[in-house]
Structure prediction request, 267 residues.
Amino acid sequence: MAPRESLPAWEQLHMAAGAGNLVGAMQVAQRGVDVNVRDPQGCTALMAAAIQGRSDVVRWLLAKGADVELSSYDGLSPMICAAFGGHGEVIRLLAAKGAAVNTATPPDGLTPAMYAVLACQPSALTALAQAGADLQARNAAGDTALGMAIRNCPERTAKLLVKLGADVDARNAAGMTGLMQAVAQNRLDEARAWLNAGADIQAQTPGGATALMAATLNGHVEAVRWLLANGANPNATNKKKVTALAIAKARKHPDIVAALEKAGARR
Prediction:
């Protein structure tokens, strides 16, 4: 189907690309339209094809010299479009042409892998990892792709990321793992997801604090009981030889003291 000639040339090209209309896109280009022409938001035909997974059109655009790094004015790249759309084949085509797999959007710092997580796209995550995506990268809020997946996607997405190399015990600037952060805020559903993804319940910060200590410090008795039920060591000490029980007593959390003592905490 030929593009509607009443439309601006860029719009004809972009519509054909997004619809997977390879013949129509070729017809527009034959009239001298630059394949890198941008719409008012800075998007290109390559982006339109990438987000829809139009691999045949993507191949043709790349052969015609489409710029794999030309982004929209708000920082969205063809790679990000393919990742958000969940199109592994397009990701591989772009990567083969040198497209960056770790460039983040300003100012939020979201990488292509994070955009794939926003849409819970496992095939895109696999293709990105194979292309060298940094799965340990953090966005402006300090989140990793795995942390985002833990909160927003089915459990299988987080497990896939771990299988692909994401560190389930990665530390934030304070040295806390995702599991520690979850129990410190009494987010038990999130904590369960971290544990199911393989998080180390005994992990310690550089200062020796554990998830159990984090939950105790913040007075979350439900989180303390859950951690103990899942094998957290009630007698672990930090670098100052302080235990969770000592913290609970100092903070005057009698329910937590009772739970810890019942679990075998000695001091």
